[in-house]
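Input record (Table S2, row 431):
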Amino acid sequence: MDEKERENRGLALDRRTFLRSGAAVGALAAGAGAARAEGEPDPLITEVQYWANGWGDGVDASPYGLPIEFESDVIRRNVPWLTADVISSINFTPIHALDGTITPTGCAFERHHSGAIELKKEDYRLMINGLVDQPLVFTYEDLERFPRVNRTFFLECAANSGMEWAGAQLNGVQFTQGMIHNMQYSGIPLRTLLEEAGLSNIGDIKDKWVYVEGADASSNGRSIPLEKALDDCLVAIKANGEALRKEHGYPVRLCVPGWEGNMWVKWLRRIEVTDQPVQSREETSKYTDTLADGTSRKWTWVMDAKSVVTSPSPQMPITHGKGPLVITGLAWSGRGAITQVDVSLDGGKSWKVARLAEPGVAMAMSRFYLEIDWQGEEMFLQSRAHDDTGYVQPTKTQLRAIRGENSVYHNNAIQTWWIKSNGEAENVEVS
Ligand SMILES: Nc1nc2c(c(=O)[nH]1)N[C@H]1C(S)=C(S)[C@@H](COP(=O)(O)O)O[C@H]1N2
Ligand SMILES: [Mo]
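Output record (molybdenum atom complex):
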């Protein structure tokens, strides 16, 4: 842009205006971390930069957009020692680097037991059989012709925070709480499809079940009470407005709102209505909680209320020095909506009520903020969620008193970050 063009666009500025206000601008910029002597002009303001000196990329440079290269560290990551190989595997959402509540599908965690399969819409079939009036098979096109709804839900793997039972272990909220994502699903209520097959001969629904399985080799079969299936389960064909990612179950997955991620069968292929649970591998030897005395607690389906501060946190140290600090995090409950989140700066001795970005939505994530004036003091930062059933997120000590230390799954304890005076953060436990 030459001087004339600037003038035409009303952008003409007297260079001396910049120089005169240099001191004030300099002071602001210094606060934001730029190393420059007071009074010195900021070339980012006074000089025409290369990005303003020619063409940017054309609109066709990237027909399906990817994040800009400067954000290349906002990616899923795994913990190499956690699973035997990359096929039977798990990775973690970079929740430390995200804001708002919707998880971008590209960086949303994945868990698959026998790898992610490639299943074309044309090859897709969904069977409903068992105690129905008329067994049915739906194609993908059939599903598209049923009335759809849009719902936002979190999906949390029951093993989220599982490595933290015995003590603080992994240094990063991505690894300690990142087996979670929150998406807006478009889909058909499972009730609609079950009613299409007909449930007139099944009697009392209270002692009936559906057994759901996927098209992958693991099948990931799970038994779900028919009552839940008829209540709010969704057969999802889109997430965040677009087709499901292959790794999230393309073309169709089941949503079981508020209940453990394992029940959210991907590549959904069959739903059998039964009069008893199948007692599959996934609901007996796995996803079961071992108590202090070695016995197992049967079926913990609902994910209890939980929250965590995502920033500052070990992967998000405070780098801007003293002064205004935005503390933020996520909260969710499988029993209903988040009504309140408290934040403690002193390891749970005292609490402040955080600000919810939006009113809580049942079985969906809430974002909270607490703005403080940080003067470089050490903090033991915690958050504590409340849901609309009155449930309050427990401390680790409270959880262990009931569950012992043998568990892997269903750890919804309060997380502590030790924020040091240099702004770095570490995963710790307070007693
Ligand atoms: N068919 C099938 N469905 C599956 C799985 C699987 O391996 N196969 N994994 C389950 C587990 S344990 C979890 S936590 C969630 C993970 O969903 P995501 O990969 O979309 O994060 O899917 C569940 N559904
Ligand atoms: Mo899971």
